[in-house]
């Protein structure tokens, strides 16, 4: 299936940033798209920017009962992209059990749930794409809980690729990408705050959501790639 024409694509965390861009590109490539997010206003705005044909489902991906609605009503599912994720910031000694569990629930348990809910209707040539992050590879003080969750997402990707074959399971590992998430963290100082990091990169800038969407739709369409983590980071791991 080298095209997304006629495919049903479900994007968890599809109302903003990389997920929204992935939904938009999948739709342009001919897919019927479902987006999932928690905030109703963000979800409505996302759907409005995509088009009336897009299904929008309000759910917390950590909650399997809520997530069920994203897959109900579809008689076949071709591709699921999981972009929802949280990056808690606290030192190991200060981290509460709930914070760690929450980070794992949103990024990892959500993937277990998506598999359980989608598999009965999954196209055997279809795919799941999980989301990792630099924290899995470049530990930073105060960011271990997020790193545990992204690292687990990569391990789960490989496990699922073996367990679910011929359905393909891959992960995307974005570098620093210009999304509303960075706006929330840095506000107006975003570009300046990131400059010390981005200037060192072989491709010395923030990535764009379209570059991530392109990589995710590539992983959906390529029918022989499974179990990989695709780094889309301007070369961040090299420096
Ligand atoms: N931006 C970066 O530089 C960067 C780098 C590496 C990895 N990442 C990861 O990439 C993913 C996408 O990030 P982004 O930058 O595109 O962020 P974003 O613009 O904030 O988008 C995140 C999307 O996920 C949804 N979401 C978050 N938690 C959710 C939950 N529990 N249940 C359902 N939906 C949820 C959000 O909607 P609601 O909040 O309304 O639910 C939104 O649609 C995240 O996993 C993030 O950790 C980001």
Textual characterization of the structure:
The chain is an alpha/beta fold and about 240 residues long. The protein has one domain (about 10-175, about 210-230): 3-Layer(aba) Sandwich (Rossmann fold). Helices cover about 45% and strands about 20% of the residues. It contains eight helices and seven strands, in the order E-H-E-H-E-H-E-H-E-H-E-H-H-H-E. The chain has helices spanning about 15-30, 40-50, 65-70, 95-120, 145-165, 180-185, 190-200, 210-220, and strands spanning about 10, 30-35, 55-60, 75-80, 120-130, 170-175, 230. A seven-stranded parallel sheet has the order 3-2-1-4-5-6-7, with helices on both faces. Strand 1, helix 1 and strand 2 form a beta-alpha-beta unit. Helix 1 crosses helix 8 (about 210-220). The protein is globular, with a radius of gyration of 17 Å. The mean pLDDT is about 95. NADP nicotinamide-adenine-dinucleotide phosphate (NAP) binds near residues 36 and 38.
- The secondary-structure class comes to alpha/beta
Quantity of strands, as a count: 7
Name the overall outline: globular
CATH superfamily: NAD(P)-binding Rossmann-like Domain
Look at the structure and give the CATH class: Alpha Beta
Helix content: 40-55%
Percentage of residues in DSSP E strands: 15-25%
Bound molecules: NADP nicotinamide-adenine-dinucleotide phosphate
What is the CA–CA distance across the termini?
Answer: 36 Å
